[in-house]
Design brief:
This protein has about 600 residues and is of the alpha/beta class. Helix content is about 40%, strand content about 15%.
């Protein structure tokens, strides 16, 4: 049992209690408990096992006992009994965009809806449209949401699988018969979503490794088990595949199973051009064909391949980082020595677009500052929601001015610690492209993030015009989550990204990589063009808690996949330089 699983159980209990129309305070207690587990700075699972949760604010005796039961047994009797009162598929309904507890309860009570299939049926039949609070438009939106979900079935976001990767790799690396272990596939390449997870080991005795792999905790079903390959389905729905090779095969196998398919095809053809055949186990000479001469990058003899760099070197190429292996120009760049030195997590000196309890965040201004300091950052930008985001408790003019004053006061305190807070705001881009606050108030801020939070149904031309108008405001420093997408839940709204990039270059607006794993927006596929146009990015976590600051990990993966370097991300700049960059657009 890991912390994420514990918090999921508490949150699901809260949802089920809402469906039963239980006391709101009881519902809130479980939601609060889930947030505490998610954001706890230490090892809360170990504390729960040891029954040492007393004193943690927000966790009463009942929750402490339930977390202890979860951590020690992997199950919770109260949760199992609560689930038994509802159809097995009821929790799936919470994953459909536009459905909340009240509507789900109504669908369940009035029409017996207990699964996505039931929901689809009552929407198509017209029965759902007759319910109070629904109607034809709502039903159409629900059907679109179901279709979107079905088209992405069996896909998982990075944050959903990252803990699995860490756990499985740890288990494999600790096995006495394993000399090397690595995750491969689309996860290693940093794709925003994955279908399954591929693991590779070099092992002296593969059979014993396979036995431990199929028998590890969390396995729901063994899909296959062999001497060198096994597949399992986890309780979370993620399929994990494990392959075992010999140590001298590991380098080529890692290249092959990392992919992508398109990248591998080019590598194999390159090997053939040099008189060699390349597969997942290594290079072999092509019968009767002599290798190309050494001046063209070929080899007369095969050296020992200790790692992937040796494989690429054998083919006359510089080492290509896994994130770049999509056949989008990386082969040519590797051949000519023009591969970029990709940005690294350690390059970040701070970030922007972060929320506090002043709007919809879960941590106070001081708590966010302390968390940033613990991460070793030099600065942190605070950008709570603006007044139009009523649902997110957006700040009005008076509240924002008060927050600016509080930030200035905290900066005096944190100066000796080497941390500076920047006062910002995530302002709503209104339908006509104007933004929430007037220029006078915006001028009091250190920076401004402008984002679209509503009216997603405009035409591409209207939405693009709307965003560009906001970017033309000299106070708008950076553009937030450009396409509004929520991975596996909501598609991007219609917008001309190429035109947005051109406008960013023209106006000097920074475009963020929203590192929240639900977003990862702007998409990695656009960043090569943006860099060519001279557009800078900021890798922002859109953090709503202290733990959320660590989502920059996912943002850096996307930045690397987009060929970005340290020089392309403004929040890699030291404190002495970043303030000037934030003011640069206003000076223009």
């Amino acid at each position: 049992m890991i912390a994420d699983q514990m918090s999921d159980v508490l949150r699901n209990i809260a949802r089920l209690l809402e469906l039963k129309e239980e006391n709101t305070f009881k519902v809130r207690a479980y939601n609060t408990g889930a947030e505490i587990v998610e954001n706890f700075p230490g090892d809360i699972v170990s504390k729960a096992v040891a029954n040492e949760l007393e004193g943690i604010k927000g966790l009463g005796d009942a929750l402490q006992q339930k977390l202890h039961e979860l951590a020690t047994t992997g199950k919770l009797e109260y949760y199992d009994k609560l689930k038994a009162e509802f159809p097995e598929g009821i929790m799936e309904l919470f994953e459909v965009q536009g459905l909340g507890p009240k509507k789900i309860a109504l669908l369940h009570q009035q029409l017996g809806v207990g699964s996505i299939a039931d929901l689809k049926r009552v929407c198509q039949s017209g029965a759902a449209a007759k319910l109070a609070g629904f109607g034809e438009k709502t039903v159409q939106k629900l059907l679109e949401g179901i279709a979107f979900r079905e088209s992405h079935a069996h896909e998982f976001r990075q944050d959903q699988v990252a803990p699995v990767v860490a756990r499985v790799l740890s288990m494999l690396k600790e096995h006495p018969d394993v000399s090397r272990a690595e995750v491969a596939g689309s996860y290693r390449r940093g794709k925003e979503t994955v279908h399954d997870l591929d693991f590779l080991v070099a092992a002296k005795s593969p059979a014993t490794v396979m036995d431990e792999f199929v028998g590890m905790s969390g396995v729901k079903q063994v899909l296959g088990q062999g001497e060198t390959k096994s597949s399992v389905l986890l309780e979370s729905g993620v399929q994990c595949d494990l392959r075992a090779v010999k140590n001298d095969e590991f380098a080529c196998a890692l290249v092959y199973f990392t992919g992508s398919k398109e990248h591998n095809i080019v590598l194999r053809q390159r090997a053939l051009d040099r008189g060699w055949s390349l597969n997942e186990y290594g290079f072999t000479r092509v019968g009767g064909v002599s290798p190309s001469n050494k001046q063209e990058g070929g080899r007369d003899a095969l050296d020992t391949l200790n790692d992937e760099a040796d494989v690429y070197r054998f083919l006359g190429l510089d080492f290509i980082e896994p994130e770049l292996r999509e056949n989008t120009g990386e082969i040519e760049a590797a051949e000519s020595g023009k591969l970029p030195k990709l940005v690294e997590l350690s390059n970040l000196r701070g970030c922007f677009h972060n929320h506090t309890t002043a709007s919809d965040g879960k941590a106070t201004l001081r708590e966010m500052a302390e968390a940033a300091h613990e991460l070793g950052w030099q600065y942190l930008g605070i950008a709570d929601h603006s007044k139009s985001s009523v649902i997110a408790n957006g700040l009005d003019e008076k509240s924002l001015l008060a927050q600016i004053t509080e930030i200035r006061q905290l900066n005096e305190e944190y100066a000796d610690k080497g941390l500076r807070l920047f006062a910002g705001s995530e302002v709503d881009i209104l339908k006509d492209g104007s933004i929430d606050f007037d220029d006078g108030l915006l001028g009091e801020l250190d920076y401004v993030v402008a984002s679209v939070h509503n009216i997603f149904t405009l035409s591409e031309a209207e939405q693009t015009k709307r965003i560009i108008r906001a970017m033309e405001n000299p106070h708008v420093t950076m553009l937030g989550h450009v396409t509004g997408r929520l991975l596996l839940e909501r598609p991007a709204y219609a917008v001309n990204i190429s035109a947005i990039i051109d406008a960013a270059a023209e106006t000097g607006t920074i475009i963020e990589i929203n590192a929240n794993p639900w977003r990862l927006d702007l998409d990695w596929r656009w960043w090569k063009l943006a860099v060519e146009k001279g557009v800078k990015c900021s890798i922002n976590p859109d953090a709503h808690s202290t733990r959320g600051l660590q989502d920059v990990f996912y943002g850096v993966r996307i930045a690397r996949k987009g060929w970005l370097t340290k020089a392309d991300a403004v929040n890699c700049l030291p404190l002495v330089e970043i303030a000037e960059v934030l003011r640069m657009k206003r000076k223009r």
